[in-house]
Model the fold of this input.
Amino acid sequence: MSTTEDIIGRADVNDLEAILGVTNTDVNELVHHVKDNADCIFTWDYEKGRRPALNKLYEKAKTSQWNGQTDLPWDTEVDQEAVVIANAEANGMLAGGVDLSGTVFEKWDEKQWLELGIESQNWMLSQFMHGEQGALVCTAKIVETVPWIDAKYYASTQVMDEARHVEVFAQYLDTKLSGHYPINAHLKMLLDDIIEDSRWDMTYLGMQIMVEGLALAAFGFIHMMTQEPLLKQLLRYVMSDEARHVAFGVLSLKEYYEGLDIDEIRERQEFAFEAAVRMRDRLLQQEVWERMGIDSKEAVQAVMLSPERQMFQQMLFSKIVPNCKKLGLLDAGDGWLRQKFGEIGVIQFEDWTDTGDEYETFALSDEELKTAS
Ligand SMILES: [Fe+2]
Ligand SMILES: [Fe+2]
Done:
């Protein structure tokens, strides 16, 4: 059994200096190589529908495809400054009610707050784009490694979905915002770990359950907050796909985990915890503070004073925790993951809706899909 230090590289999950000490040192690299250690598996069992829930998901995916070029209103004029001002309430720092005296923000004027809002948006959308490429690559890996034909079929539709997601986020960044950020070091570490793992189910756990579970919650939050019509519609369409992807993870792992012994389950619990910490660490947006020339540690300490900010960070785990519970990961063994999720302050979501069939409520209507043919 591993210690916290073995799993995440530090003994204290909240050790700010250790978190901020991990940075992306290859910001100028154009390609990034990762060793993919998994076996490619063929199956000669072609019986379609042996796993009815996966088959249903596959059939649903085939009729839910949309086109990132023709189904979104790309001619929308986006005034990023106006959007940032309108979203100011959504930014925990600007929500008011927090005493900033004695912090790096004490003497900030409106112009600096606006710059922070703009940089934060560029950073966030950039990380979404990088995460979507992670999903594209991981799901292509699942096509190769999963032994079930219904899962290979479904995963192939997700590969197409993820290509579309990378495409639309990249286009939004290029044509509507004002700059890109390289991938965050913590997100990069997590994606590398997922790809390097030789066990096919770990790709699902890292990507479909953890990364996509967080993405679904994050997109939902921003979709609700933003009044910018293009981004709102883009997120609506992406979320309708993401809800299927998370369901794919839940449905596949539910079956597979039933056949694992307690030691194997413990390894999955530890991986889920590692992924949760990496994603939590990345939310500190250290690259934004660096670009703005502000001390990251002081900035993060001040930001975390805001209750809205803390709530936002916790809310991002509102899909992950119930899904881990549904998979039996929270309480297996001695309830190790329940305790760990308690330590990082997210266990309160355990009884929220899991995403096993929530995709039906996120599905695009016939009206929304009418141009998608
Ligand atoms: Fe995606
Ligand atoms: Fe996805």
